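[[Sequence with tokens]]
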Amino acid sequence: MVMSRMEGRISALPAELSADRLLQSSLDLATKLAGAEVGACFHQVGRHAGLQMVGLSGVDHAPITSFPRGIMQLVEDAISGRASVCVADISATQVADPDAHSSDLPFLSCLVVPIASGGEVVGALLFGHQQKDAFNDEHSNIAREFAPHLAVTLQHAVLVTQSHETIRQLGASNRELDEFAYVVSHDLKAPLRGIGRIAEWLQEDLASESSPAILEQLGLMQERVQRLESLIDGVLSYSRVGRLRDPLQDVGVRSLVDEVLDLLAPPTRPQIEVCPRLRIVTERTPFEQVLLNLISNAIRHAAPEQPQVVIGSEQRGDEMEYYVYNNGPGISVRAQEGIWQLFQTERDSESGTGIGLAVVRKLTQRQGGRAWVDSDGSRGATFRFTWPCARAS
């Protein structure tokens, strides 16, 4: 009967309670059911790290921040012995500290019950009362029956606390990584720009005196400097995917494609087949990065004699699928998965960094979508991706 009433009250606890509030509510209920005036919950932080008080209950518990050494010894005895400990009169035993007066004690009688989960003792419940000999076998049985329920709540609260601490540490680590990446990229790019400027000055000064071969080599040096700068920027972009979030915006896909093309300024304007009036609510920056990488990739690999690039979107059930086609030589089936890896390019070429497609896949997966390529390996390639948060209007 006692257990059925207790389980009913436990199940009635609001589901939306936070871990701390749920632990407090459970401890309040346990204290009341045990007939105690004061209740405390302790978590054993490892075998040698000691006990941590994680909850207090009772109208007069506010001044209590710690318990005398003797009381804590009772808690340790209950945990190590895996058995309940009951003291009828603390003042008449050696539990009280020699230098403490009975008026300083928070209670005169106490009951300590170990909390076990999966066969391992994870903490203890302590109940106190201002009257002597306040606890009997019935109170002890109720406390022991309640302990497994509180074990689940205690472990949940501990896990939540640990996860919050882990998240805090990860946030601090990510901020440090961002600062480190910025400093490293700045330190790497500064000498590169100096090399590029020197090559440019030499090319200008020697334009009328040097052979075409020397001028060509200086031009290649500038191109390699620019490519290395792009590589550094690409690695930074890849490292930050998933760690930085933008606010949601209402974005017109066609107008965003036009902006990307204006930024790339290709010699021939690609054909655009975006669904009329298509708009999406999403993070603008990552969606723009995906389009920028795929469109620049298509322009770079289109057939040089008659380049053709088509950008469009199609409704596929509940998803909106976007595609970027180029009429280049295509991608073999064997290579179609490898090109999405870091530093892998469609073919041996110095025109790309091998990072753009890796960024595309990582960004789409972060949004819950996917990215892939369709090609027969002999003519043309269509890069496709889904963006699940898209909605047509």
Observations:
- Residues 1-17 have pLDDT under 50 and may be disordered.
- Residues 137-205 form the longest helix (69 residues).
